[in-house]
Amino acid sequence: MTGNDAVFLPNKLRLLMELRRNGIADDKVLGAIERVPREKFVPATFLDQAYENVALPIGNGQTISQPYVVARMTEALELGDRHKVLEIGTGSGYQTAVLARLCRRVFSIERHRALLRQAELRLAELRLHNVTVRYGDGTKGWPEQAPFDRIIVTAAAAELPAQLTESLAMGGILVAPIGEERREQRLVRIRRDESGFTTEELGIVRFVPLVAGLPRDGAGAAG
């Protein structure tokens, strides 16, 4: 443990206890959150809030998600160490790093180049070599790597793009917020089997919108 780690340790332990009290019961998920240094994913101006259970701005109108939401979505994926995961919205790379601790491979798409570059540096610093990220339109998925055992979408849409649901493998799980911006959004878990898709609601959330296409300036979602 470095001196910097020790500074954040009390706040991290407090956050982990809060997550348990709020119903996060999967020890593997809690362990992954414990191992990922959230302070490396938040802007310097918000460093003192790195382990507060709140979402924080990261630029480009995006946020790093509330730790409870990261834990809840990760737990809902029911990840195994052989799973291949698609993440829509790399954002800061924090959710990506948590996923990488729990599965075989993560493929993550981000539509803001600036955020993607920063996330790549953070993930490389943590030596998470089972992550591949790329710049692109997340609503189109990653067809050349499909199907995926698990898909997580970290931005809300009124309806999920068909490209994403069709990229889900048989027996797979997709977790995403559904709803319009500034309106009630529902976190859902979708399972795919031979008979089709079944949807389960997991609660109310608030996310930035899932936007099709790329920014007009070509420059640099929540995560």
Protein architecture, described:
The protein is α/β, with parallel strands linked by helices. It has one domain (3-205): Vaccinia Virus protein VP39 (Rossmann fold, 3-Layer(aba) Sandwich). The protein is built from six helices and nine strands; from the N terminus they run H-H-E-E-H-E-H-E-H-E-E-H-E-E-E. The chain has helices at 3-21, 27-35, 67-76, 94-100, 113-125, 162-165; strands at residues 56-59, 62-64, 84-88, 105-110, 131-135, 148-153, 168-178, 185-193, 196-205. Strands 5-4-3-6-7-8-9 form a seven-stranded mixed beta sheet, covered by helices on one side. Strands 1-2 form a two-stranded antiparallel ribbon. The longest helix is centred in the first third of the chain and has 19 residues, at 3-21.
Question: Can you give me a brief rundown of this structure?
Answer:
The protein has 223 residues and is α/β, with parallel strands linked by helices. It has one domain (3-205): 3-Layer(aba) Sandwich (Rossmann fold), CATH 3.40.50.150.
Mean pLDDT: 92
Query: Mind describing the biggest β-sheet?
Result: 7 strands, mixed
Q: Could you say which structural class the secondary elements and strand pairing correspond to?
A: alpha/beta
Number of domains: 1
Overall form: globular
Distance between the termini: 26 Å
Strand line-up in the sheet with most strands? 5-4-3-6-7-8-9
* Portion in strands: 25-35%
Give helix % range.
25-40%
Cα radius of gyration in angstroms: 16 Å
CATH topology: Rossmann fold
Architecture (CATH level 2) name: 3-Layer(aba) Sandwich
Q: What order do the SSEs take from the amino end to the carboxyl end, as H and E?
A: HHEEHEHEHEEHEEE
Number of helices: 6
Q: Which regions have little confidence, pLDDT < 50, spanning 5+ residues? A: none
CATH class: Alpha Beta
CATH fourth-tier homologous superfamily: Vaccinia Virus protein VP39
Number of strands: 9
